[in-house]
Amino acid sequence: MAEPYAPMPDDWQRALAVVAHPDDLEYGPACAVAAWTAAGKEVVYVIASRGEAGIDSLTPEEAGRIREREQIEAAAVVGVGKVDFLGHRDGVIEYGLSLRRDIAAAIRTYQPDILVTLNHHARWRSGDWNSPDHRNVGTAALDAAADAGNRWIFPELMERGLKPWPGVRYAAVGGSPYARHAVDVTGTLDQGVAALEAHRSYLPALPPGHPMADARGFLAAKVERFGRRFGGTPAIAFEVIGV
Predict the structure, then answer these.
(1) Could you give the angle at the alpha carbon of 86 between the alpha carbons of 170 and 213, nearest 5°?
(2) Are residues 77 and 197 in contact, defined by beta-carbon separation less than 8 angstroms?
């Protein structure tokens, strides 16, 4: 029998969620975000791309405008009022200094206690291969936590008035096959569903029969499945990594 999940640490006030695309957070982590903001915690979203390559029937310019707008709406549903888009190209986000610098700048700007990101490992829990955008952004976010605290890394950020922020304590990785912690989302499933449904232009573009197209069914099954390892309480699981 799988080991029960431990409660995710709760002794923090500010989180910065860093992911590759609009909608990444809405496939589960946003339910936890809703619980956190309801408890008075502050959460800011940073999205590496605008999701412009995600809808085959729309040009990247049009898709990017729509998906950016829908992500802002989805964030508001779960109590997040600030969403930044870094402008990296959807589908070909590269791990490297530019991405690390941009995320480090966001960390210095918002001074979070924790980072939240998406699975950066090669595979999902299902065994399916993870996308390079997810892998690269998640890894860069973990590395940027150290970059943000070192004045000699990216000194140009100091010239922009962004002082070092060494205060990131750990990262919470959603969708990780190595999750050992969970967050009680008993009262926030409806918000999570509404946030996912806010991506009303993207969800219909998923392949026919794709499980994520049914927002409520997909999320309800997920929180119930995680809840089996969390005392029967609906939950979203995270891998917690010290940074």
Answers:
(1) 80
(2) no
Per-residue pLDDT of the chain (243 residues; tens, 9 = 90+): 689 999 999 999 999 999 999 999 999 999 999 999 999 999 999 999 999 999 999 999 999 999 999 999 999 999 999 999 999 999 999 999 999 999 999 999 999 999 999 999 999 999 999 999 999 999 999 999 999 999 999 999 999 999 999 999 999 999 999 999 999 999 999 999 999 999 999 998 888 878 777 999 999 999 999 999 999 999 999 999 999
Interaxial angle between packed helices 215-227 and 189-197, expressed in degrees from 0 to 180 and rounded to the nearest 10? 140
Q: What is the pTM of this model?
A: 0.96
Query: What is the four-CA torsion angle of 52, 54, 59, 61, rounded to 10 degrees?
Result: -10
Could you tell me the domains of the chain? 12-242 (3.40.50.10320)
Distances in Å between the Cα of 175 and the Cα atoms of 27, 138, 181, 182, 213 are: 9, 11, 12, 11, 17
Distance CA 102, CA 169 (A): 19
* CA distances from residue 188 to 38, 97, 185, 235 in whole angstroms, order as listed: 9, 37, 5, 10
List Cβ neighbours of 144 (8 Å cut-off, separation of 6 or more). Answer: 18, 100, 101, 103, 104, 107
Partners of 6 in the β-ladder: 181
